[in-house]
């Protein structure tokens, strides 16, 4: 081999290595950019799910607060009405009957209201968890498909 052919072989080898190195770098960079883009997309969806969850939870808390306020108001009105009835009772027997009727009614209303409030809380929690559950499901499916 001559000096010129050795130089050509070295030049060709160097160019091949440079091209291969550049291609590997470009491929690696494109994969990294794609992974970062995918991660940003997932992060954005996760944040959107958290916002949706918090919005739903807040609405549930507002609904529960409104229900509790309405119950408290009605309860106070019933207490005032019962007090007026008791004040107008003509006998001890009538007062006892009025008090017993009020106590029974108040307890039944209380139990019904607690049941409704429990249902409101359960529905609110289920609805608030739904967006987060969707993101967890998407993540599990992604991990499973990667294997």
Summarize the structure.
The chain is mainly alpha-helical and 147 residues long. It has one domain (8-146). The protein has helices at residues 3-87, 92-146.
Topology of this protein?
Layout: H1 3-87, H2 92-146
Describe this structure in words.
With about 150 residues, this protein is mainly α. It has one domain (about 10-145). Helices cover about 95% and strands about 0% of the residues. The chain contains 2 helices and no strands. The protein has helices at about 5-85, 90-145. The longest helix is centred in the N-terminal third of the chain and has 85 residues, at about 5-85. The protein starts with a helix and ends with a helix.
> In whole angstroms, how far apart are the ends?
52 Å
Radius of gyration: 36 Å
- Report low-confidence residues grouped into runs of 5 or more: none
Instruction: Provide the helix percentage.
Output: over 70%
Please identify the structural class as seen in this structure: mainly alpha
Number of helices: 2
Mean pLDDT comes to: 91
Q: Characterize the biggest β-sheet.
A: none
Return the domain count.
1
The number of E-state strands comes to 0
